[in-house]
Amino acid sequence: MKIINTRRYILGMAVGLPLIGLLSITSEAQSRPRANQSQTKRYVVKKPDLSEIQRATLDPNSDYYYPKLVAKYEKKDTTMTPNEFRYYYLGYMFQEDFDPYRTSPYTDKTDRLRSKTKHTKSEMDTIENYATLALADNPFDLRQMSFLVHVLKEQKKDMRAKLWEYRLENLLGAIMSTGTGKDIDNPWYVIYPMHEYDVAQLLGYEAVDVQYPRDGFDYLIVEPDPTDKRARDKSAKGFYYNVVIPQEQYELKHGDANSDENYQDDDINTDYDLAE
What letter does residue 110 receive in the DSSP assignment? Predict the structure, then answer.
């Protein structure tokens, strides 16, 4: 099976610093140690055991106890392993404050600046300020993370750009290691429906429709993004995503106010460029 080097896909942003490390995704059978692997983040494509992730992230004696993962992530630790990123990302679904449709009041403050490839100093300061606030409110806002990396590179704030690039790269790696997205038996697991669109765009597609083939599963219908000129396979017609836990949590926390009609992706604003 082909090894996916996510350096190629994840950040086709402004020309800037290289990504930290070299992130790869491979099948479980191909996960043999290699020379110099300590310098490499290798994500094995493997269906996640959500029961085990729930148990471990809620157990104070576990290495994957969620507060421990949060502390490691927030102290700018670039030694987090692929498993730690997987438990950090997927484990958030089992935390008390998880809400799959949580929105930050800061996310729309810089919308008008997204289409610009170059910004004034004042605009860069505004983007950095609001993106940082948005990520403090929701550390899994991949769009704000992408935008922040872009503007930090513009400002030549190299070390901060590297850190956020590292985080973005590994959160996306954690998602893409959960499956192939090719069929309903091998979906990608996401904690927010918005991340479905993020992954599709990451691969050079734009979403044109969404279907719900089974309760807790989304099928995002895609077309090649005509603005993405990078050489890559763009033969996919759509991608499957598992949103069983987000749907359960949404129904649990919003009660009768939620219905199948309300739990849709139709109102999600997908007008942005992850790989700006």
Answer: T
User: Rounded distance, CA 220 to CA 22, Å?
Assistant: 28
**Residues 100 and 250 sit within 8 Å (Cβ to Cβ):** yes
pTM, 2 dp = 0.82
pLDDT digits (tens, 9 = 90+) for 162-209: 999 999 999 999 999 999 999 999 999 999 999 999 999 889 999 999
Beta-sheet strands, E only, within 49-139: none
Burial class (CB in 10 A: 0-12, 13-18, 19+), 159: exposed
Q: Kindly report which listed range (155-159, 222-226, 270-274) carries the lowest average pLDDT score.
A: 270-274
The beta strands (E) that lie in the chain are given as 4-5, 22-27, 40-45, 188-189, 205-214, 217-224, 238-242
Q: Which helix (H) or strand (E) holds 239?
A: strand 238-242
| Domains of the chain: total | 1
The residue range of the domain holding 210 is: 4-257
What's the N-to-C CA distance of the chain in angstroms?
29
SS3 256: helix
Residue 270's CB: how many other CB atoms inside 10 A?
A: 14
> What is the separation of C-alpha 194 from the centre of its chain, rounded to a whole number of angstroms?
9
Contact of 224 with 204, CB cutoff 8 Å: yes
Q: How far is CA 31 from CA 28, 43, 198, in A?
A: 5, 8, 26
